[in-house]
Amino acid sequence: MSIGIVGLPNVGKSTLFNALLKKTVADAANYPFCTIEPNVGVIEVPDDRLPILAKIVSTQKIVPAVVEFYDIAGLVKGASTGEGLGNKFLSHIREVAAIAHVVRLFEDGNIIHVQDTVDALRDIQTVETELIFADLATLFKQKEPKGKFSKEEGIRYDAIIKLKNHLNAGSSARTLRLTDDEAIQAKDLQLLTMKPEIFVFNVSEEQLMEKEDTEQRIASIMKYYTTPSPDKSGETPPYKGGEFKQDSSPPYQGGVPAVESDSTNGGRGFIFLNAKLENDVLAFEEADQKEYLNQYNLKETGLNRLIKTAYETLGLISFLTGGELEARAWTIKNGTLAPQAAGTIHTDFEKNFIKADIVQFDDFVALGGWSKAREQGKVQIVGKDYIMKDGDVVEFKIGQ
Question: Where does the TGS domain start and stop, copy by copy (predicted)?
């Protein structure tokens, strides 16, 4: 699973990416487009359960779940029509599973802003508008089926019409309720605004210290962002890619796209952090890191919160396996059945799945491993219809 880090130039995307990777990979400079090709990093998902599991099963090797992060170059107004190498950058976004949208909230006269002033809501609108325009361009390329066509083709075209009208009203595709069949047909369109999105507000150290005020400020931005409204600046041009014939609504003028809430519901969530501080804290030993974070009343790094939020936003969970060789977290989608979970270890495991022994992590820890868990009747023997849960400790039984 992959997350694309997007946003305007000079908002802290590459600084954040370097902190995630715990080393300098991406260029971070005080000018637009210092990143051209996307940098890719495989990031471990923090999981406090793994060291505990490793100790119980007497292994030194720990293998956490991972998420890929892509540092994508900054978007600018007009990216959907090619401004600032926009078409190339938008194609990079199309390849990821979800978007981490970095928004600048900090003021710093030494770091230029592409629009000269810091205005978080305006900046969100700029990026979201370009993503909507790019999706409209994709939809206008889709042709109406002619003559005899299959049921699936009809459902697909119905979904396209709904999506055109929804995007034309200034709302992102992810907020449109499609039927299950329509959603399946729309998936291959790879719409940018269909992807789950996390807002990452890059704040100053002062804003980090004034946590309640910063939370309120962000909440007010997100509250304003909850319903479509006309563009007050009047600067965003209407989409020029085609004419709507399905309804009489005017072309989208750059209003605020709809958002479900300020949590991960509706495919969106948000966090705030200081990207520079996240980089600085990496220079300290673990014990010193905690002391450093305590100055800002933080229990963990913003990076850990981002990674966990990304994992949740993608609808992912982890099941655990442990033995003498290793303690490992395996990534699966929420709702995965036991045979498919076994298949993440090896494809033959899904094909030859017989059953699985499963114990909840807390019970496994409390009883000190499989032996006592079995004695106490805490081990479930499950079949092919079992839906995996986060934190399941598993032994799969596989046939020949």
Answer: 315-398
Q: Is 266 exposed, middle or buried (0-12, 13-18, 19+ CB in 10 A)?
A: middle
Per the rule left: phi > 0, alpha: psi between -120 and 50, beta: everything else, 254 is: left
Query: What is the distance between the alpha carbons of residues 236 and 77, in angstroms, rounded to a whole number?
Result: 8
Answering whether pTM is above 0.85, one says no
* Neighbouring residues of 104: CB distance < 8 A, sequence distance ≥ 6: 7, 8, 10, 11, 12, 113, 118, 120, 123, 202
For every one of its 400 residues, what pLDDT tens digit does the chain have, with 9 covering 90 and above? 789 999 888 888 888 888 888 754 444 443 344 444 668 888 889 999 999 999 999 999 999 998 889 888 766 666 555 554 445 667 788 889 999 999 999 887 767 667 778 899 999 988 888 899 889 989 999 988 888 888 999 999 999 999 999 999 888 999 899 999 999 999 989 999 999 999 999 999 999 999 899 999 998 888 776 544 434 333 333 434 433 333 333 333 333 333 333 344 444 678 999 998 988 888 888 788 888 888 888 888 888 889 888 888 889 999 999 999 999 999 999 999 999 999 999 999 999 999 999 999 999 999 999 999 999 999 999 999 999 999 999 999 999 7
Amino acid 355 reads: K
On whether the CB atoms of residues 139 and 188 are closer than 8 A, the answer is no
End-to-end Cα distance, the chain: 31
Nearest to 103, CA basis, from 3, 186, 221:
221
Structural domains of the chain in order of their starting residue, each with its CATH number: 2-48+65-313 (3.40.50.300), 335-398 (3.10.20.30)
Burial of 212 (0-12, 13-18, 19+ CB in 10 A): exposed
Contact call for residues 171 and 226 (beta carbons, < 8 A): no
